[in-house]
Amino acid sequence: MNDRTAATDGSTAIYNGMLLTMDASFHQYDQGLLIIEDSSITYAGPFRQELFSRIAPEQRIDAEGGLIIPGLINTHTHLGMSLFRSLADDSADRLRKVLIPMEKALVTPQLVYYASLHSISEMLLGGTTTCADMYFFADQSARALQESGMRAVVGSSLSSAAGPDAAEFSEGLERLRELMQACEHSDLTTAAAAPHAPYSLEREDLLSVSRFAADHRLPVLSHLAEMPFEEPYTLERYGLRPVPFYDSCGLIDDRSVMAHCIFASEEDRKLLISRSCGIAHNVSANSKSAKGIAPAYEFYRAGARLGLGTDGPMSGNTLDMVHLLGMTAKLQKLKEHDATVMQARAVLETATIGGARALHMEDRIGSLEVGKKADITVFSVASPAMFPIYDPYSALVYSASPSDVSLVMIDGKIVSSQRRLHTIDTAAVREACRTFTGQIAAKML
Amino acid sequence: MNDRTAATDGSTAIYNGMLLTMDASFHQYDQGLLIIEDSSITYAGPFRQELFSRIAPEQRIDAEGGLIIPGLINTHTHLGMSLFRSLADDSADRLRKVLIPMEKALVTPQLVYYASLHSISEMLLGGTTTCADMYFFADQSARALQESGMRAVVGSSLSSAAGPDAAEFSEGLERLRELMQACEHSDLTTAAAAPHAPYSLEREDLLSVSRFAADHRLPVLSHLAEMPFEEPYTLERYGLRPVPFYDSCGLIDDRSVMAHCIFASEEDRKLLISRSCGIAHNVSANSKSAKGIAPAYEFYRAGARLGLGTDGPMSGNTLDMVHLLGMTAKLQKLKEHDATVMQARAVLETATIGGARALHMEDRIGSLEVGKKADITVFSVASPAMFPIYDPYSALVYSASPSDVSLVMIDGKIVSSQRRLHTIDTAAVREACRTFTGQIAAKML
Q1: Cβ contact (<8 Å) for A290 and B339?
Q2: pTM over 0.95
Q3: Do B102 and B37 reside in the same domain of the chain?
Q4: Which end of chain B has the lower number of beta carbons within 10 A, N or C?
Q5: Do A62 and A87 belong together in one domain?
Q6: What is the complex's ipTM, to 2 decimals?
């Protein structure tokens, strides 16, 4: 509870809901009040009539008895992949046999732009306010994110092999420079370097990425310790396990976010944590692909910068962070053979302030505190599954659906309310996407 | 595809959607047509203008391009427990320390009636048309189900110890007789005997239940091979593992539905399958309680009568069958270390015709075929996660949310449309429930 600035007539209030601040002491207020001025929170605490009275009536947002939380943070996804959703599901080796040839043939800047808008629609409606993305033609994803008013770290995917947006590694760096330009004047999108994985770039290219990212102070997004074949590969070629190998390339530091880390040993985890590296845990994708259950609870209790991610919509198959909450709790309980680990509040932490820490943005987002950006999600409690609520964290983690999200604010602006998006024309986006889904379906035949 | 009877003016049609029949050959029709007369399906096949023309315009239901499937079947739940949802979640031994004392103190016929109505609201809105329930004061659950127009097998919970509705076992049989009376004149609700578990009834009481159920041709619902302590218990007392022990009591046959079976060995599974016993797989509850992943895929591929269940809303914590679909697939893939097992169509099978087989009702429900009861769920494809759809089974299993359900018909009657229930006043039910949730909250302090 704090009251740094007096609210002015231009401020907005969110009231009549239970406020879960997710601050360091997990302050919560049965009847909470948030006051937002421009893009920032100027009051977060119990309802106070004298503050509320100063807000113009049309600037008062009634949470209708719902749960008010920091916006959800998706720490790993591939926005441009939504048009591949449900393709060849359950089939063996689908990424190599179906997806990669499909990407080479069909991924264009236009596809990435519209697929990203479609992905962003799903995320905003489901209460996600920030994501970390990595894909091809990332300047197009950045454009879609900027138009949608969503906060993001946007990574340009880099590989030593030819890909949809680059014939070779050096051309990939050109794409990254274009992305940096596209993000230059945006407060919401941050450009990042995204080397794909230890096995898809040569060591010299990984070292180039590392130097480039250091020179430009860019975040680094990558996949690490995800594949069963990864450890034999790096051991044979470099005499190191994947995590120490990446570290030897200078890729594990306080600007890095490593996705998956399923096969991270205790030693690997210590290294990742000691370097302040962010970890993106992707429970839905990792289970659907039968890869395994990452040691998320071990990361959590050792103090890692641990966030949750949906992975791409071809892997997960949704961009639904709400559904990940319960799965994260349940699969860690199974892994640890203990129903008391990875409790509901801890899970919500990973989805909010934990995700902010994973993206090294905890100074700006992840909790509802004075001075932080106003990234806010309100859950309605009208649906049957949301009653009764003896514990609001349990309700969010074990009962909520993405459709319970009733309001989403990013950077002080309302982007979705009553299940309607304010910044994206979803029907027009779907119509534009049909050109590409038609091409994909034709190629599958 | 079949056309047994000509549609009359009194018939209803559902059109403009993809029809997934879930019949023995998994027939599906991109532009399907269902015709319903009274409570039954009289046509299920491709759209045919000459049939459609005979339906009165006001009896034509536009599925709006959605997916039309058999109503979902929840093969194991405890309707009366919804008011305990989220209570002491993540705490050790919560059933024994919190729930059982709470039930003894507070469970009344009134609580069971209103809690059941609240549970049924959630199930109907989420596309579930049939459930198998077991709890105390089961005549009250039957009453709530009948008022709601939901199909169900309703079990009266039996124990050798004193419970909320019976001081001793013989009194429990009285409750069961009351339930049988309550279901006597209902087409929708079938009374069942529900001995709680191998460890909660003495052998002589289990034998009594078995004889009583055989005499009255009642279904038998129970928990089996669920608890880690169950096997040492029956081995020590009876020299048999739980499944053979139950079999020795005459409880495993073609009227039985056994919930969980997490610890069923290969031999146990063979016995259960050879007896035509139904199996209720409860992935959400079993993972939340860290008990383990039941061998559902092993049951499935061996031809078991396998259905899915939510378990009670204190365990699961929802009655959401849609969310179970993806979890069932993902956790079996993890268990089998193989992304190609428990494919989407197989999962939808367990949630529909498989559930019907588990409840021994496959002659009446579980698929969309001529002569079957008109229990039908329509999923909208309007939400972003439901586009694109290259495989409708994948879309339902990996992408759908319960809020995508746009229409639910049971026994030929519409019970929910456009997310509005036709048979339950949800606001009034919630208001009535507040008396009980207040008592529960007070007792927790």
Answers
A1: yes
A2: yes
A3: no
A4: C
A5: no
A6: 0.96
